[in-house]
Amino acid sequence: MANEHSPLLVHGVYSMMGDTKDSRGGSEVTGEGAPKSNPRKLNTFFGVMVPTILSMFSIVLFLRTGFVVGHAGLLHGFLMLFVAYFIISLTILSICAISTNGAVEGGGAYFMISRSLGPEFGGSIGLMFYLAKVCACGVYVLGLVEAILDIFGKDPGSAVSHGLRVLPQGYWYTVLYSSLVLLLCLVVCLVGAHIYAKASFIILLVVTVSLISIIISPLILRPQHFNITHTYGNNHTVTVNPSYTGFNSTTLKNNLGPHYSLDYSTNTMMSFATVFAVMFTSCTGIMAGANMSGELKNPSESIPKGTIMAVSYTFTVYVLLFLLLSSTCDRLLLINDYAVLQRVNVWPPFVTIGVYCASLSAAMCSMIGASRILHALALDQLFGLPLAPAAVTSSSGNPWVSVALCICLSMLFLSRMI
User: Fold this and answer.
1) Domain ranges in the chain?
2) What is the mean pLDDT of residues 189-217?
3) In this structure, are residues 104 and 8 in contact, taking their beta carbons and an 8 Å threshold?
4) Is 43 exposed, middle or buried (0-12, 13-18, 19+ CB in 10 A)?
């Protein structure tokens, strides 16, 4: 039977022939099954559950949950949720099957695919996965900067600061702020996976506090009415008067069915497909734990267990939020305000902090995942000399060159998006 110390598929042949070298770098393997240069420190909770939960709790959780419930209704929302989680469950089961079939080293999904399907498939998929992670890091960083400037940025036409709006805006200022965020990600990733795990845990605690504030708010807030004004085209304004009812059976009944209408930000008609496309992005990120395979004490056990528990937890949270919003908020409020969770919170800054933390954690997760994939590609020598420097590690086994290359590429991609 395959165990933690047996290689995957083709590599089993080499172990049967008595090969005691590690198949990737030729380094001796200790009696505990891990290379001496790459100690494994993280357990299931810190190494798999926390990164996966934070990757799935993206900014969509705070800014688009009301949008989904408002347009799709509770029943269609549940249908979308079940379909999305059924789709990702197929991938999760595949990860579980491959990761429990033998020893899993650094590189996560790339390592498992390349050892199962061969280097041709693994290398091409790994390269695309790496580029996707790098681009995602740039998107998350830019989203975080824009969210910060939305609260603290000066008005473009004003030379005087008002209240909290003290940060100057502009192309180069955005590049500067993005560079500072990337620098923070660089420091965390350079120190090592154990610091990343601790930072992720602290961020998870903050996000959890934000979610708790959302859940308990209906027990504290009283019903209230709002005036929301949107501007379309040339000074064409529309004002709606939605209401927050608190827990109300009539509100729940009115929000059961779908009511696809115009989206106030894009002025386009929503449909099941468009709303599902938005909602599905909140169900991605399931590979975050698998990408930490090189830092896990027991990856063959931690990856399947941690991923399944993380996905179950996020599914439960989304179900609770769908029920909460559909039973407390008027449909007009849900479809006319992306920040409805902030508007009806007992202390609105809780949600703002949650948005910042979710974006920062997603950026760090993408960065550390991309660096591990690039390091694994370099070790396998699939692309020859150009990727050779990415194989360099520190004395503790941290691929610092890969991290630096990922940061530079993310900065280039980010500067083109601004």
Assistant:
1) 44-156+170-218+244-417
2) 93
3) yes
4) middle
Per the structure block, which two tokens stand in for 317? 């949270």
Cα–Cα distance measured from residue 160 to residue 178, given in angstroms and rounded to the nearest whole number = 23
For the stretch 213-260, pLDDT in tens is: 999 999 999 999 999 888 776 677 888 999 999 999 999 999 999 999
DSSP H helices, 100-118, are 109-117
Q: How many residues does the chain have?
A: 418
The pLDDT mean for the chain works out to 85
Name the CA dihedral angle for 88, 48, 195, 192, rounded to a multiple of 10 degrees: -80
Question: Is the alpha carbon torsion for 65, 311, 144, 408 positive or negative?
Answer: negative
At 30 the pLDDT is 38
Owner of token pair 């110390």: 5
What share of the chain has pLDDT > 70, as a percent? 88
CA-nearest of 302, 345, 287, 341 to 108 is 287
The CATH H-level superfamily of 44-156+170-218+244-417 is: Amino acid/polyamine transporter I (1.20.1740.10)
Q: What six digits make up the tokens of 409?
A: 């590429």
Phi first, then psi: give them for residue 252, nearest 5 degrees.
Answer: -65, -45
Look up tokens 């036409």; give the residue: 157
Rounded to two decimals, what is the model's pTM?
Answer: 0.85
